[in-house]
Each structure stands twice: as C-alpha cells, then as structure tokens.
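# step 3/5: fold
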Amino acid sequence: MSQTTTPRRRRRTIDYNSPAVQDEVNNITHGSFVKQGTMIAFPTCFPGASVPILADECHITALDKSRQGFIYGGTSGKRAHIFVGMFHGVTGMILDMKAVDDATECTAVCCGKTQVMACMNGPSGGGRIFAGNLEGWPYDLIQEWGFNRHPFDPLGEAASGEPIVHAVADTTRDHVVGVTTHHLFTVDFANPKIQTVGEVSGCGRLALGSKGGVFGSDGAGHLWRFDVPGGKLEREAVKLPDGKWSKTPAVWARVPNTGLLYTVDDDGRVFSFDEQRGFSAPLGKTMFTPVTCLAATFDGRVFGSCGDGIAKLFGYDPGRREVADLGVAVSVFERRRYGYVFGDAVTGRDGEIVFGEDDDGGHLWLYFPRIQAVGGTTVS
C-alpha cells in the first residue's frame, strides 16, 4: 500500500531588525496596558483617615458630576452606597454619604443645583429614589477638616414593583428624567414628587441631546424623545442607523461643549448623534464588545471600556476619524492596581475621564488622556 507524505511547510524567515517587526515585538511586550495618557486608581475613602467601602458593596455602577466639579456615584453589591469624590484643591478624598439598606443596585445618580438624587433597586419592591444635599467645598487651608453625613430623604418607588433602569438630570438641572422597565417618570428637584409621564419599554441608558431633549431606546429600531419643558413624549422619534441594536443595552457619551452624543451598536460600531442633524455614518469600530461605558472630554475625543471579563480601554478621535486601542487599565501610583471591569464613566471638572470600577475593591479611576499637539496629532 502506497503512502503519501505531506510536504513540510517552510518556516517564514522573520527579520527582527526590520522596523515593522520591532514595532510589533514592542507592542506585544509593552502594549498590553495603558498606551496613552495616565490613570490613577483612587480608593473609596479618605486615605489615611477612613476605610474604603466594603469589597462586596463597592461595585461602582453610576456616576455624575456636579456643577462644582465633584463626582457623585453609587455602588452595587450586598448593599448599595451613595458617595462623593473630590480631587481638586486640598481635598483628595471619597466620602461614603449613605449606605442604603434593602438596596443592592444603584442605576443612576443625578446632580441638581443643590441636591443629588440616587436611583436604587433592591430584592423587594420597585426601584426607589433618594434625595440629599450636595456637599460644599471643605475649608481650603492646610488643617484638619472633616465631613458630616447629611440625611437622604426617601421619595418612594418610581413605578410600583418596577426596577429603575436609568435616569439623567436635564440641561437646567431642575429635573430628573428616568425610566423603569415599563414607564417614563420625572422628579422636580425643587418639589421632589415622582410623576409618571407614560409607558415606554425601559432598556439601556438615557441620553441628553444637544437641544435638551432626553432620548431612550424605543424597541430595536428607534429612540423615543422627551421634551422636558413641554412634558411631551414622542414615541419612535428617531430611527436608529443601520446596525445591530437589539442585544446590548445602549450607552452614551455627551461632548460637554457641544452636546454631541456618541453611542455604539452591538458590533462595536461608533456613531455620533446630533439632535438636529441625526445620526452619522459609522465612524469606527471598537476592538471588543460589549461597550460598557463612554465619556467625552472637552476637545471632543471619546473614551470608553469594551470587552467582557477583562476589558480594554479605547478612544475615538474625531479629528483623525479612528478608534485606538488604549490597552488594559493599570494604575502605578502609590500602589499597582489593574482595572478589568468598568460600570460607568463621566467627564471630570478639567476634562479628565472618570471611570467607575465595577469590581470588588472598586476604585474611581481618573484618566488623563494624552495631550493633543497643534493640528490634532498626538506627541510621540
């Protein structure tokens, strides 16, 4: 019986002196973690004076920024917490403002002019809303100073028996607009009474448009729009662009200066959305899916977290019209910490991106992107 032999493959000769190969070797060796900019992981405490929120209660899942530039957030886990972070002047601390009993998930934190509201879900009943006062600046001279925990008032359930999916403060910061699994609701900061607007299918996060409208997912193909001053809900107000929109809950980033929105579909394709002009064509594609959070800095660049399990950071540069792989999050200041899962992101006071770590021992991660050179290019 005759036998046939398989010809042996020739091994490709690699020229390790070529610039292209050297770049690839350098990327493999040094390109796993943050490639551009700097990250600082800040614990959920006043370092040296208080202890962090417990490991099984500190998954950060909601963030917002007050007009003062303070970062307010909420956690999920065995018990949910509301906190505030201050990182400017003589501050450098996170204050655990309240631990909410019978609450295991914070889905939104919304800052008004003088108050903050937090949306909490728990194992029994529907999603509840809590309202409290914003923190003031600490005494700014070099001395010992501290904070008092102010009470939070329970406002009740947003919709009987329904968990809260998400909520945002409007452009005036006079109202909160939120959605449960089946209803749209509003709350006035000055007169904190929950008002039901109408029925919607709550899915994904809400977005505040460039003209002040609030948008949310309306099935797999459209967005509804809510006009806050007029109290009018328009179903199927905006058609989503061609893409896949049925699998992953919506996430959004809003450019602070213009109100331009960015979002990503199930396949990681990035789109912009202007309330007057509508959606753009696909602008790029992330390396992995799903995209868990997005935020935009003052110059219009968008940064986010993508991937399941061990996520990567990415950035979209509108000047270069490309999505860049920024690597896995790592902080090397004071002590080394790796960041694998992020639940929300918000733009900080000075344009830095603040990520909330959705993991045991969760930290607030301050990301300072690489500074752009003149003409929109980056300095190498």
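# step 4/5: annotate
The longest strand covers residues 93-100.
# step 5/5: archive (pending)
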